[in-house]
Specification:
Mean pLDDT: 85
Distance between the termini: 45 Å
Radius of gyration: 17 Å
Largest sheet: 4 strands, mixed
Helix content: 25-40%
Number of strands: 6
Order of helices and strands: EEEEHHEHHEHH
Number of helices: 6
Low-confidence stretches: 1-9, 177-197
Length: 197
């Protein structure tokens, strides 16, 4: 008989759902830190089967308060332990690189690949950015096209626009004009072609 390798049971995360000015958010925490921040209807939303709602969880309450303060302009950064262990080593490297992009700054996918020593891996970098499990706090919204245009954001381009505007990033006229969508509206044809991550 060939022994079956031992596999640890997946750790159930503790969760809470909050309302924010940018829509509903699911927060998730492990024993090691904040493991998730996903907007409602965000692409790559996780399967939460087995996760336990725990709105009184201290870390989740702290994360919720810091996020609300950030979105209201009362806070410029986050002081939270993060658990980014649920990605591949490459994804984790990309997510750590995102943490180095300062508030008010942006990087292109190519610049991010270059910073990781993988200048030809723009698509892989884009895919990893799109799978970022801790939106806003791990600032994937700060990654833009090489020409300065807004490109894909798993939470939707209107949220990306709002976050960058909050952080004082000067957006190209076509990305800040009066035709900007409201959160929750269907994307335009132009936005559908840009939402690659």
């Amino acid at each position: 008989m060939i022994p079956v390798p031992f596999r640890a049971r997946p750790v159930a995360l503790r969760t809470c759902h909050i309302d924010t000015p940018l829509g509903g958010v699911l927060l998730a925490a492990s024993a090691d830190g904040l493991a998730g921040l996903w907007f409602d209807a965000q692409r790559h939303h996780p399967d939460t089967t087995g996760w336990e709602p725990d709105p009184g969880h201290a870390l989740l309450q702290d994360a919720a308060g810091q996020l609300q303060d950030y979105l209201a302009g009362r806070r410029t950064g986050f002081e939270l332990p993060l658990d980014l262990s649920r990605g591949t080593p490459f994804q984790q490297a990309v997510w750590r690189a995102l943490l180095a992009i300062p508030r008010g700054g942006t990087h292109s996918y190519g610049a991010l690949g270059l910073a990781l020593g993988r200048p030809a891996a723009m698509r892989a970098v884009g895919a990893a950015v799109g799978r970022n499990p801790v939106s806003v706090i791990v600032p994937c919204h700060r990654v833009i096209g090489a020409d300065g245009s807004l490109t894909g954001y798993a939470g939707g381009l209107e949220r990306k626009r709002a976050l960058l505007t909050l952080e004082g990033v000067a957006l190209p006229p076509e990305d800040r004009g009066p035709t900007a969508r409201r959160v929750g509206n269907a994307p335009t044809a132009r936005e559908r072609t840009q939402e690659v991550a």
